[in-house]
Amino acid sequence: MFTTRLKKPLGVLATAASLAVASLMGQAGAPAQAAEPLKIGFVYVGPVGDAGWSFAHNQARLALQAKFGDRIKTQFVESVPEGPDSARVFRDLAQQGDGLIFATSFGYMESVLRVAKDFPKVKFEHATGYKTASNVGTYDARTYEGAYLAGVIAGGMTKSNVLGVVGSVPIPEVIRNIDSFTLGAQSVNPKITTKVVWVNKWFDPPKETEAATSLINQGADVLFQNTDSPAVLQTAEKMGKYGFGWDSNMSKFGGKAHLASATINWAPLYEMLTDEVLKGSWKPAQYWWGMKHDTIALQDISPLVPAALKKTVLEREAGLKSGSLTIWKGPIVDQSGKVVLPAGKVADDKFLHGITFYVKGVEGKVPGQ
Q1: Running DSSP on this structure, what letter comes out for residue 52?
Q2: Assuming Cys at both sites, which of 7, 232, 241, 287 could form a disulfide with 212, CB separation 3.0 to 4.6 Å?
Q3: 213 and 259: one domain?
Q4: Dihedral of CA 22/24/30/32: which sign?
């Protein structure tokens, strides 16, 4: 056996011999070395244990790893604040050799685009974004469909006719969910009004609790939220009101307060995009999946919901899956009474992505307007 102490000529001879042996093995049909797994990185805005948004993404990551096995290797970074500093995280993942990176929050958009320019061979997928590049695609879930169905239940369960929503960040996605929740409630109870308290955070349980308490003190007896923790639902239970789970199934946190959970299953999207990268067919695109793709669902409807109301909800859910029901169909007016969608007209995705107004029935002003 040669050792590192041998002089160079012998080392050269050893190298030549090794190459010869390798050549003979190759000629004999020796198996090729297995391809390196595709490394995939996930960046979460909250902790994986938030029981909501980031938890749902991480559950999909686990499903992805289970589906593709040793063909992929996943990792994640949690609790990464939105904004320019997030670029350091994306850059680090790319430098580690990740070939596909999922950025799972709206506020990562500019960081993703900036880092993507420096790593043209890395594929980036940005959740809820609207900007693409040669190596950047976007994906989203039609969360407003789950919000609408929750609204149908809320409209039928309220006694005060006052609903409360804890809003996270005032972007079109969240405003669209608040409006859709209100439209759902109005479809079964035209008397309802919706109050909104904004916390300007995706995940901040103390602020969410404070906002939920404020809404109940203002007369709301059914609460909804576009925040990432179960704090709103837990507050509703503590104060004897109703609430919903959001993004993930939160039924175990709400007791009798839990009316249903509007959930997201990201796994189908993650599996499709990963498969494309593995096959070399990936191209930047924009996906927006909902109930038709089993991405959005309303789970664990409470036995407290009357049978007739539950039947209505399930019929509406079936309509959304089949396409026979359209939530955003005119006439729809904003809170000032202005017609934003004429009678009979169906909102297209461009309209839906640009919603920055409250529909009639929502009180207060959209922040920044």
Answers
A1: S
A2: 232
A3: yes
A4: positive
Q: Can you give the pTM of this predicted structure?
A: 0.90
Domain of residue 287 covers: 38-142+266-293
What are the pLDDT digits (tens) for 137-154? Answer: 999 999 999 999 999 999
Q: How far apart are CA 365 and CA 369, in angstroms?
A: 7
pLDDT digits (tens, 9 = 90+) for 266-299: 999 999 999 999 999 999 999 999 999 999 999 9
For residue 162, give the H/E element and its range. strand 162-167
CB 155 within 8 A of CB 189: yes
The set of residues, in sequence order, having a beta carbon less than 8 Å from that of 56 and lying 6+ positions away, is: 247, 248, 263, 264, 265, 266
Q: What share of the chain is helix, strand, coil (3-state, %, to 5)?
A: 45, 20, 35
pLDDT tens for each residue of 35-45: 899 999 999 99
Q: What is the DSSP secondary structure assignment for residue 33, as one 8-state letter?
A: P
Query: 9 in helix, strand or coil?
Result: helix
